[in-house]
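Example (one chain per record):
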Amino acid sequence: MKILVIRFSSMGDIIYTTPVVRCLKKQLPGAEVHFLTKPAFKYIYDNNPYVDRLLLLKPTLSENIEEIKSEKYDYIIDLHNNLRTSLIKLRTGIKSSTYKKQRLRKWLSLKFNLKLIAPIHLVERYMKTVKFLGVKNDGKPIDYYVKTEHDLKTLLPASHHDNYIAFVIGATHFTKRMPNEKIISICKEIKYPIVLLGGEDVKANANEIANAVGVNIYNACGITSLDESVYLVSKAKKILGFDTGLTHIAEAFDKPIASIWGGTVPELLGVQPYMVKDAEVIGIELSCRPCSKFGLEKCPLGHFKCMNDIPEDVVVNFANDSLKSI
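Predicted structure:
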């Protein structure tokens, strides 16, 4: 049996496809499993032992369709469900099973602050697409394979080699990120060394935070590569993070995670921490929350209460208490 799984983006959505791929490969004897995604997300499946071949989205859809036809797949598992995947399925004529996005229910939930979407994790939603093959969820975490065994001594100062907390401060949109002053206030109360993680886009934020907090913080934002950042997350004793890809990838290592949410909510998309023994979702109830599915560049009402009003002691206590039993 030969199966093509499709998910084009984004980082968090693709990382949650890994249990589906693993279960297909392990539960269907002799199955050959391929995965199609955008070139930008190739790294998520690098070194993954459950994928026999990784296909990358080409400049034109016709090129991909010809490649897919030549592979003679028995099934397509469409975990993206958009116009392009619909065209792929139509033009290849391959039997398929498609992830149901529940677009109308999500729109109504967002527009009228209704709770029409059951709080089922995205992995479980994805798994429904392979149920017809007799494949079941194995109940294990997501998969992510660090490309290189890095050395903490070259990535962090000596003061941060043991019992450090990784704080992922990056996120694509403003309404997913906590204001600098609030992060500073939280970090000043944390008893353990802190490593700030994020991309070049939050390097200036991280510099401001590190300068205000002092020697307890090491700023790795915009310095470490993604693979190095994932490695640092995998070696941390605790992770604090917002709704962003690196926070979701951290779930692969089953470390204690505080997942902090502002204008978005995990229930709508089903992306709360998955199969993590010690996890806490932190966010507050507001009539205006969520204001979007994926985040906005500013608070629509100007007050940004969803982040500003999060009790700091909840985050601080999670960070300090979680290390006592480790």
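Caption: The chain has a mean pLDDT of 94.
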